[in-house]
Amino acid sequence: LSDTPDEFSLIAELFAPLARGYPGALGLIDDAALVAEQPGTEIVVTVDAMVAGVHFLPTDAADLVARKLVRVNLSDLAAKGARPFAVLLAAAFPHGTGRAWLEAFAAGLGADLQEFGIALIGGDTVATPGPLTLSLTAMGRVEAGNALLRSGAKAGDELWMSGTLGDGALGLLAAQGLLTTVDAEAVDYLADCYRLPRPRVTLGPSLVGLANAAMDVSDGLAQDLEHLCRASGLGAIVETTALPLSPAARQAIDADQSQLARALTGGDDYEILFTVPPGAADTLHRLAGESAVPLTLIGRMVQGSAVTLLDEAGRPIAVGQGGWRHFSTHGSGAGT
Ligand code: ADP
Ligand code: MG
User: Fold this and answer.
1) What atom of ligand 1 comes closest to residue 90's alpha carbon?
2) How far are the Cα atoms of 65, 85, 139, 294, 323 from residue 117, in angstroms, in the given order?
3) How far is residue 199's CA from residue 204's CA, in Å, rounded to a whole number?
4) Could you say which of 33, 145, 234, 275 is the most buried, measured as most Cβ atoms within 10 Å of its Cβ?
């Protein structure tokens, strides 16, 4: 037979150490985990699934797959202002997955759980005839009533985002060897952004009490901003010239303008998009320094429901399947 460990030795040998002494994990030998209440706080829970060939490349290294799985979930918690403390893993490993792969996966998982100070407190392990499918549930805490929501934006709020835009989407191209217009250093930088997102775990909680609304940008700024607008019952205006780009993304866009549409509509940014009342810029610049994450003012929230992207001349533009185009008809918005 193959060197595939059975479910029980897999849990005992590779996963139980990742409980990292969390008491309620019960050593991963019981039916469920116990999470203690902390008065005055709420538990924020999120889950994200990743499928080989859909959310990561089947050839991606096992440790990086595990770390990305952790990070995409921590990004959701950060966007709610929550501090993470535990995760649960549901894993469907393809039949015959070898011990070396599983060990590397557990090592990557352990590295990130340690880095972010969280514990694996439970999960489920099954075998599948299909592609590797992973689901991680992440739990965090936030002061009761203070979670950052998509629905809290006010007309007149400034719209800010953390980090840079499009590195993940351009990074997918780079990782596939399809980004030939930039130098090798930029290819490496972008591919790394795609494979190993940096969730804004310090920034998120520090936005509590400051931001009126926040969300994780994971499906492309253009689309995600529409979701924030809908939840808040508002529209937004974005100055595309203000959008923060990494030097590598800038290189790709300078070489091929159509990549700007990819940066705006592609996924895998894992940045925080948030709104603040005017006057918070000084505080935000201080926070940017403290969390070592750039923060950029990209637009504002307005009455209505339209999300309008303005070009360098202040003309509205739309981002569609075919890339950028100027509005030629009424009634269509971004993402059409
Ligand atoms: P059940 O019979 O209830 O499905 P299991 O035998 O699957 O229980 O799980 C036994 C213990 O191992 C439980 O504490 C469960 O949370 C834990 N566990 C199983 N799979 C994983 C996993 N992939 N990651 C973390 N813990 C796991
Ligand atoms: Mg089970």
Assistant:
1) 23
2) 19, 7, 12, 23, 41
3) 9
4) 275
